[in-house]
Amino acid sequence: MQILGEIFFTHSLSKLSTIFKIKSEIMFGDMQEKQEALRKTLGEMRLEAEAGDGLVKVTVNANREIINISVKPEAMTPDDPEQLEDLLLVAVNRAMATAAETEATESQKLIQDMLPPGMGGLADMFS
Fold first, then answer.
1. In this structure, are residues 97 and 103 in contact, taking their beta carbons and an 8 Å threshold?
2. What is the pLDDT of residues 90-99, one digit of tens each?
3. H-type helices in the chain, by residue range?
4. Which pLDDT score is estimated for 22?
5. Which residues span the domain enclosing 78?
6. In this structure, what DSSP letter does residue 73 have?
7. How do residues 5-23 score in pLDDT, each as one tens digit?
8. Is 21 inside a domain boundary?
9. Cβ-based neighbours of 48, under 8 Å, separated by 6 or more
10. Is residue 84 a part of any domain in this protein?
11. Structural domain total, the chain
12. pTM for this structure?
């Protein structure tokens, strides 16, 4: 009788293990697809920041990739190249900060969408 119990227990554990494996593959497979969709969405977003009252404008996507840098001629003064460098740094840093905030917000939405109903408060643990 003990042998039958052990066989039943072993068989039950094997089935349970298989069920967990299948569920995790479904869940993580879905998560990977959602992450890829999020990356694509972030890559299509255009965010802009400027410095020097618009003398320098930087456009990035929410994946923190620089898409464009626009510099007005008035920003390029031969006697003060440091001014242009400073304006570029400020505009790039502002654009990247905006991209990081946007990425965090969109990632938070993804996490909330993946949680079971009624568990949305758990997503706050990841922000």
1. no
2. 999 999 999 9
3. 2-44, 81-114
4. 59
5. 58-114
6. G
7. 454 445 555 666 666 665 5
8. no
9. 57, 58, 59, 60, 95
10. yes
11. 1
12. 0.69
